[in-house]
Design brief:
Structural class: mainly alpha
Number of helices: 17
Radius of gyration: 21 Å
Distance between the termini: 41 Å
Largest sheet: none
Strand content: under 5%
Helix content: over 70%
Order of helices and strands: HHHHHHHHHHHHHHHHH
């Protein structure tokens, strides 16, 4: 990129940063209680919900992370897409989200404990811990995505970039709560649509829109990258189910459904969002695969490399602000949900804290969660290493109790729920932290 393009890119990022801070301080004080801070008083209409849902769901994972998986694993990367974006997206967008929109809960654990388990505090607290996992690590993954770009485009040291971006994220999210998040997401949603369109068009152009040519090119470099069954069945099944339970248990998907004004709003907004997401992620993985013959060593940063080296310069201008918009909108939503887990699910499931104090504590919780996320970004190996970790814990614990609770229609005993969710949490955690199981 030329000096002028780099300058323009930098200016666009700065303008976006300023816009986020202005929105944050404009919405500061709009939350009168924890419900306002976490779901905005359940007043979000169709347009805002569509934009915030699209922006929140299309973060570093869907752009940089999925392209990186395409480069690292070839077409084998589609297994996660089939489970997460395709099947998980359809189930979440068409069935679960409209169903959840009828309730006035602030989090997934809130729903599970109160609607399925008679308001049991133990179930809610353990569920809160499980949901907290992705809400802590996914913002770290988003910070990683931004930092990749700032490092490659502006030459800013990766760790310094992670710290700076993390601080901006924390201040923005802490100050305005969900209202700041939603309005910033509306801005970022528009930016992401433009960015996605450019990246997909010029990304597919790298292999001349010719799938046969792409196949031959990949096979000539590494035939295993064009084999969906190169791994053993257990690994394939794990990728599929990790994606599926991740999509259906992702806390931000539930949060936006609870924030929807009504069922009709959720059905329309989620339907459009997940349809676009299914198509986008498939194409982004394909672009990552197209990088294999060009630079197989690009790995997790393949999309950034492709934009800077194989696409027109003006696409590079939108790289920084596009990735920033994608990452910020996903990260701020997760941080807001993390605060809900900490305050409403774990510390105060009874809702006994006074309204003003609950907002104060929610802001403190957001800042703490943000600090942990920054550390995750600095020390994690790659983006989806963080994402799948959160998916495993949250999905492996909460989806089973959600499904069983619905099937039993209020007949599930609280004691059984307590035992089941405890075993689920321990086992899911073991599969992540014990090397032989992992």
């Amino acid at each position: 990129m030329s000096t002028s393009f780099i300058t323009i890119s930098f200016i666009l990022v700065v303008i976006d940063l300023v816009a986020c801070m202005v929105i944050a301080f404009k919405t500061n004080g709009s939350s009168k209680n924890s419900e306002d801070y976490f779901i905005g008083g359940k007043k979000t209409g169709t347009v805002l919900l569509l934009l915030t849902a699209w922006a929140s769901f299309s973060g570093a994972g869907n752009f940089i992370g999925q392209a990186g998986r395409g480069t690292l694993y070839g077409i084998n990367a589609y297994w996660l897409w089939i489970g997460e974006s395709l099947l998980g997206g359809i189930v979440m967008g068409v069935i679960i989200a409209p169903y959840l929109a009828q309730f006035r809960y602030v989090s997934m654990p809130h729903y599970i404990a109160n609607h399925l388990c008679g308001g049991d505090h133990y179930v809610r607290r353990v569920s809160g811990l499980a949901a907290l996992m992705p809400n802590l690590v996914w913002p770290g993954a988003q910070i990683m995505g931004i930092s990749y770009v700032l490092d490659q485009v502006f030459g800013i040291d990766y760790r310094i970039a992670a710290i700076i971006c993390g601080i901006v994220l924390v201040v923005h999210t802490t100050t305005g709560g969900i209202n700041a998040v939603i309005y910033a997401d509306a801005l970022h949603g528009v930016i992401q649509m433009i960015f996605a369109g450019l990246v997909v068009f010029f990304g597919l152009k790298m292999f001349h829109f010719d799938w046969g040519y792409l196949k031959e090119s990949v096979i000539s470099v590494d035939p295993s990258k064009w084999d969906m069954f190169v791994d053993n069945p257990i690994y394939i099944a794990t990728s599929f189910f990790t994606g599926f339970v991740g999509a259906t248990s992702n806390p931000i998907f539930w949060n936006r459904a609870f924030a929807a004004k009504d069922v009709k709003t959720a059905r329309k907004s989620y339907g459009i969002t997940f349809f676009c997401n299914i198509v986008l992620v498939f194409l982004i993985i394909t672009i990552g695969i197209a990088v294999i013959p060009l630079n197989s060593a690009a790995g997790d940063q393949s999309l950034v490399w492709a934009i800077l080296n194989k696409m027109p310069s003006f696409v590079g201008i939108f790289l920084c602000v596009g990735v920033f918009a994608a990452c910020m909108s996903c990260a701020d939503t997760h941080l807001n949900c993390a605060a809900a887990n900490i305050i409403s699910d774990i510390i105060d499931p009874d809702g006994k804290i006074e309204p003003k104090k609950s907002v104060k504590y929610a802001k403190i919780a957001t800042a703490i969660a943000g600090t942990i996320s920054i550390l995750c970004a600095i020390f994690a190996d790659y983006i989806y290493a963080l994402g799948t970790y959160g998916y495993t814990i949250c999905g492996g614990v909460l989806i089973p109790i959600f499904v069983v609770g619905l099937l039993m229609k209020g007949k599930m005993k609280v004691r059984s729920a307590q035992i089941g969710i405890t075993i689920g949490f321990v086992v899911a955690l073991a599969f992540e932290i014990v090397p032989s199981l992992s």
